[in-house]
Amino acid sequence: MNTQRRSCKNWIDMEDRFKCIAMVGSGALLGSVSTLFLLRILRRKLESQCSSIKDIEVDRNEFKAAPTIKNCKVVEDRGGAGEDLLKDEIVSEQLTRNIQFFGLEFQQKVTASYVVVIGLGGVGSHAASMLLRSGVGRLLLVDFDQVCFRCYPTAQVFLNWKKRTTGKQTGFNLLIICNIILIYWLHEKVSLSSLNRHAVAMREDVGIPKAECLKKHFSAIFPECQIDARVLLYDASSEEDILSGRPDFVLDCIDNIDTKVALLAACVRRGLKVLSATGAGARADPTRIRVADLRESTNDPLSRSVRHRLRKDYGIEGGIPVVFSLEKPKVKLLPFKGSNGEEDNPADYQIVPGFRVRIIPVLGTIPAIFGQIMASYVVTQLAGFEVHTEPVVNLDTDHYHILHQRLIEHEELLYGTAMQVQVDVAEVMYIVKELWRGRSTRDQSIEHVGRGMWRSIKELMLVRWDQRKPASVSNLILLKFKEADEHESRTLDDIKENEPEYFERVTSVLKRAELDFGL
Q: Can you name the residues that pair with 274 across neighbouring β-strands?
């Protein structure tokens, strides 16, 4: 019996050794193949970049001066780029509707602009696509994404082994290291599951890095645009590389909180204009999407987390415009299942800490609309075209009826009649929501958004700006009760003399009402 046990034990030991040797051998083989594969790709990329430079410099007679070459990239002077591009008949015709909308001078500002888009998924790809189609002359496209395990199930298997690996299992460790190299080259790729929301990707693009996919398609849409596509993760080490060059606008389309917070803080520190997108997943109602200051996006969980981190880590209270939805998420995150089919801890499968691996259900139309809104906001800003975004005001129809009735009662008390009230409930809604954004006329600065948006209706009332004129849509301001009493005890001349900035701001808003109503 003892002899049989020893023989059985020896056989098991031999089998374990054989497995270990086999795993070490397969790991080494896989590592060699991976290295050769990566070197071949790297060589092709360098050859393609440098060959494009040679093509540019082939006919020196065609150019007055060859563009400067730096790190195998074409670097050109931005001065006069918009004007020069629009002199091209094809470009001018392609952008003719924009020129008709903005005017030539303002479209030239757009065409001379440099915009950075970070995150090129459902939101970022649509934003970048419309910036391109709107004639932005220079784009930097940056994206980093995690491996889609549903597209690459072998990666999930190897990472599952990682959980069971001990320090003595050299074969497993070596195999995992080799596969992490492969996984690194699988990140950022267009996956089949992203085609429901990506702006330009097709099935033939599956497996291509998102940045390179966009550049390929964009070059066919507007070849005159200078496009730089970078497969890169934004962090402290890449900040200078991404945010240098004085971009006119930065679009934050990142869905990772740590990276998003770091990017927004860097933009504020550098004085760069930035527009941030919040969560577009798990939503379905396009009518509830808004653009507002970060402090006004109180109904969005991602905004809430970003706002808390910016305040806690960087002392930033607001002043950052964001695109967000007032709609509460309609569905929940899908459960994360391991290779055995059972629910598992997503954190165990992360290649890059902080990046999600759980699947968020997404109706493709919503991130597309987010991206379109971002592009429209940025293009109008670049052109200097004034757009008044719809405010976030927590008032319903009953509140507007109350304000209208309060105005009538106040007029009767102060003037003895309500005959001079020339507004109905619909016009009261316009005055409160569009002109004064649900806040007191004296409480309009950016530092006072957020909690002030949700103040009780009991504190507010409409009064005449100029007591000599009727209570019309262009002569009503929204004030707290005490502010209303103080206002009615003063003359406009007194306000103009002692508070010139306040006077100019109010008269400018009321002038807008005159234009809107053709008065």
A: 250
In whole angstroms, give the CA distance from residue 504 to residue 221: 45
Q: Please name the residue ranges forming H helices in 276-349.
A: 301-309
Distances, alpha carbon 185 to alpha carbons 63, 122, 191, 230, 349, in Å: 38, 21, 13, 14, 16
Question: If you ran DSSP here, which 8-state letter would residue 112 be given?
Answer: T
Residue 73 tokens read as 């990239």
**Residue at 500: amino acid letter:** P
Task: Note whether 182 and 147 are within 8 A (CB).
Answer: no
Q: What token pair was written down for 472? A: 């019309």
Task: Report the distance separating Cα 312 and Cα 294, nearest Å.
Answer: 15
C-alpha 179/C-alpha 190 separation (Å) is: 20
3 state DSSP class of 38: helix
Structure tokens at 436: 């004064």
> Does the model's pTM come out above 0.85?
no
127 CB-contact burial (10 Å; exposed 0-12 / middle 13-18 / buried 19+): buried
First to last CA, the chain: 108
How deeply is 366 buried, as exposed, middle or buried, from its count of CB atoms within 10 A (0-12, 13-18, 19+)?
Answer: buried
| Short-list 49, 27, 43, CA closest to 181 | 27
The CA distance from 287 to 205, in Å, is 32
pLDDT per residue as tens, the chain (519 positions): 555 555 555 555 555 555 555 555 565 565 555 555 544 554 454 444 444 433 433 333 333 333 332 333 333 445 456 668 899 999 999 999 999 999 999 999 999 999 999 999 999 999 999 999 999 999 999 997 533 434 444 444 444 444 444 444 544 454 444 444 444 444 446 678 888 889 998 998 888 899 999 999 999 999 999 999 999 899 999 999 999 999 999 999 998 889 999 999 999 999 999 999 988 888 888 888 989 888 877 667 788 889 889 999 999 988 899 999 988 777 766 665 555 666 655 555 444 554 554 467 888 899 999 999 999 999 999 999 988 777 666 667 888 999 999 999 999 999 999 999 999 999 999 999 889 888 899 886 554 444 444 445 678 999 999 999 999 999 999 999 999 999 999 999 999 999 999 999 999 999 999 988 887
φ, ψ for residue 150, nearest 5 deg: -65, -25
Can you tell me the distance from the alpha carbon of 491 to that of 478, in angstroms, rounded to the nearest whole number?
A: 17
Report yes or no: 282 and 331 within 8 Å, Cβ to Cβ.
yes
Residue type, 89: E
> DSSP strand E in 302-390: where?
321-325
Residue 53 structure tokens: 């430079």
